[in-house]
Amino acid sequence: MSSSLRVLHVISSMSPSRGGPSVTVHNMLKALGRRGVSVEAVATNDDGGAARLDVPVDRFTEFDGQRVRFFPRQTLKYAFSAPMRTWLRANIGGYDIVHTHELFTFAPLAAARAARAARIAYLMTPHGALDTWGMRNSSRVVKALSRRLVEGPLLARAAAVNFMTVLEQSRAARLGMSLRPLVLPVGIVDAAEPQASALQPIPALQRDARRKLLFLARIHPIKCPDVLLRAFAALGDRNTVLVIAGDGDPALIAELRRLANDLGVGDRVTWLGFVSGASKRWLLSQATLLALPSASENYGIAAVEAMQAALPVIVTAGCGLADFVRSHGAGFVTDGSVAALRSTLATLLANPELARAMGEAARRAVRRELSLETFGERLESAYRRILEREASPVYAPSPAG
Known about the structure:
Layout: E1 6-13, H1 20-34, E2 38-44, E3 60-63, E4 66-71, H2 82-91, E5 97-101, H3 106-118, E6 121-125, H4 132-137, H5 140-157, E7 160-163, H6 166-173, E8 181-183, H7 203-206, E9 211-216, H8 225-235, E10 240-245, H9 250-262, E11 269-273, H10 277-286, E12 289-292, H11 301-308, E13 313-316, H12 322-327, E14 331-334, H13 338-350, H14 352-369, H15 372-389
Parallel strand pairs: 1-2, 1-5, 2-4, 5-6, 6-7, 7-8, 9-10, 9-12, 10-11, 12-13, 13-14
Antiparallel strand pairs: 3-4
Helix pairs in contact: 1-15, 2-3, 3-5, 8-13
């Protein structure tokens, strides 16, 4: 335990609706705080789309148990915030190390620049932003130019670039960038089991005794929900319902709803929208298995949450946790095709004993290897190694402010 280390995390949004990166930062703060590290975060008040969080701005406040300073998001695109930039420039010297999250958005880039100017060591976690799928399929030309002129130089000068899995690192390596990689899977699992009172039933499912196949993720083309719908329809299993928990582009959701109806399974698909907290814990406790058929997934937080709840998981080879799932017998890894997913679903649904055994193996594995306690120790150790290695005129830690 140590209280001498001051760490600042910077991300565009801490809203749970923003998915994996926000959840990751929350868990990093929690894991470090338990070790006595003085850790804070700054973010904009972005809450997804045009929405803004109802939080105080321009002062530190408690947010979901963590110390966070919010700034007004002034533009929807890139989540620009001039007040955040001003504050970073004036205050970043009071920290020993700065840890930024995501790329191609304002907050992490402003923080990395401010850290460089103040000669403070900084890490950057891309959260899959350097994945080859995203670089090819989303604003490809703009991202390539931005990576070369903006993100690339900052990444090259970072004390470390934190990847969640070896697969994420290997994909980024194909871009030919000069980086100091740090592969460190984020801890998700809390040793404290939630009490029964921490579970909030979802009325739409509470009285449905059928088995529940769960999709728990942001609804986006990269997550391949259409593949899951087609595989589910091909099962022809009327004793199982597909529960889709997540939000996304309304036009895409409407298109997927039409697809479900066209496939003849519209009456067996429940669309819950975004689910969090006690409702999500209840949903995981009621599900039979989780399917995450993403074309590309740098980590797979939903899969870890499912494994913690003793659910077997089905992921694709494009998921960063594929090797973890395979090596621990925690579920199945498919090639991402409809046929393979249908076959794997059929196997697990027809063999409840196998599903139960895989679920228990999954729970044991994540408790042992992906706990907050283990992760906090690894992350603090990484910070200290960086500070020892970077103790030079370029990255001289400043006194606590």
